[in-house]
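Still learning. Show one?

>
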Amino acid sequence: MKRMLKTLIPLTLALALTPALAELKLGFVNGQRVVNESPQAKRAKQKLEKEFEKRDQELQQLSKRLQTMQENLEKNGVTMAEGERRTKEREFNELNREFQRKQREFREDLNLRQNEEMAAIFERANRVIKQIAEAEKFDLIVQEAVYFSPRIDITEKVIKALSSDSAATK
């Protein structure tokens, strides 16, 4: 009798919940696609490139200078006087440390700015997703899933809404 009740209770609950689940409206948004394809993300990328362009060029010039110094040391180091060679090596090492420091600062600053821009994009995307959910009466919209049916994918709607939102804010 207990076995039968253990089997019947979950079965009864499942049958009782089936109509409620049938009316559940689900949606899926591919967050990575939104970040890659939204106009806001494209503008943010261009903005960051422009913002960090000068520092990137400086790093490239410094790298070329280091490379030239290293080639010079390798080529002429044997024929240089001991004092001159040590001086050149010291200059190279100091410049190399400066390059590494600037490169590290550049990466940290770039990562910080990218995170700031992405946070703003995600905030705007989440607002749009919420608007779509309320307007179309979704019960649940998820952004991460192992599997989703293309039937519930609303990513394109979100990107289009962000595009029209972007056009309105220009």
Notes: The longest helix spans residues 82-135.
